[in-house]
Each structure stands twice: as C-alpha cells, then as structure tokens.
Amino acid sequence: MDLILWRHADAEYGVDDLARPLTPKGVKQAKKVAAWLRRQLKDVAGYRLIASEAVRSQATAQYLNPQYEINPKLNPGCHNACYLEAARWPRDIGKFVVIVGHQPNLGEVASLLVTGKELDWNTRKGGIWWIQRRVMDDGRVKYVLKAALSPDLL
C-alpha cells in the first residue's frame, strides 16, 4: 500500500479556518505538485484522493483530480489516527491513497509510520510525504519513505 500525505498549499489568513482559500502562491504550489503526482500515478488504476472539509484542502486536491472524497475527520485539530482510518491503512493492501491534509497531523503520521513514534516533522505548504508499506518474503512489514517533496523543488 502507498500512502501520500499532501499538505494543502499556501492559503489566505483572516477568515474562518475552514473557509480559507488558496493564495496565488498556493495555486502555483498545488498545480506544480499535482502535475508531478499525475506523472507518478499515471499507471496506477484507481487511487483514492481524500481531502478535509477545509476549502484550502479541497482546492489543493482538485488540481490533482476534481473527483475526490471529503472526510471531516481530516479537519484541522483531528487526531492522527483519523488519517490512518480515512486511508484504511493498512487494510487496503495494494492500493494508493492520497490525503490532502494539515500540519501537524501530516508530519506526525509520517513519522509514526517511518519511525514508530509520533514526532514533530514538518513539511512546507504544498509538500508531500510518500510512504510505502512493504511485506517482506519472511512476513516482516517495512515502511519506506519513497519521497519527501516540496513544491520549491519542482
């Protein structure tokens, strides 16, 4: 199973938290990362794309695919377990899931999967963590950080 944790792109301040739209910079970030993700996922049949109820999360997701799920459990302030539940991690073996969410949850979930501990990992707005779950021949499970990417690198 592959899980891509994508932080929403740069958003405006000063309005209701869930209603914050992307800034012009955020639109550029979302477009860049979405284009990169489309190239990576072009041979993947049927990945799931999930966004929170926040306008900035949905606006980021729509640049990858206008058809996405909205899950209120991913809203700012949620528990980290909600991210794994939304992804059905690790039950959906062989599936690709992209979650467009928020800090600090994204970094904490990424660190939990990679290190086994919830650490204060951060990523830039519009950045991703791509984590792959692999089952070895002897049955052991490994979590591999396949990519960590910032829009600035594209």
From TrEMBL:
It comes from Deefgea chitinilytica. CDD domains: HP_PGM_like. This is Histidine phosphatase family protein. The lineage of its organism: Bacteria, Pseudomonadati, Pseudomonadota, Betaproteobacteria, Neisseriales.
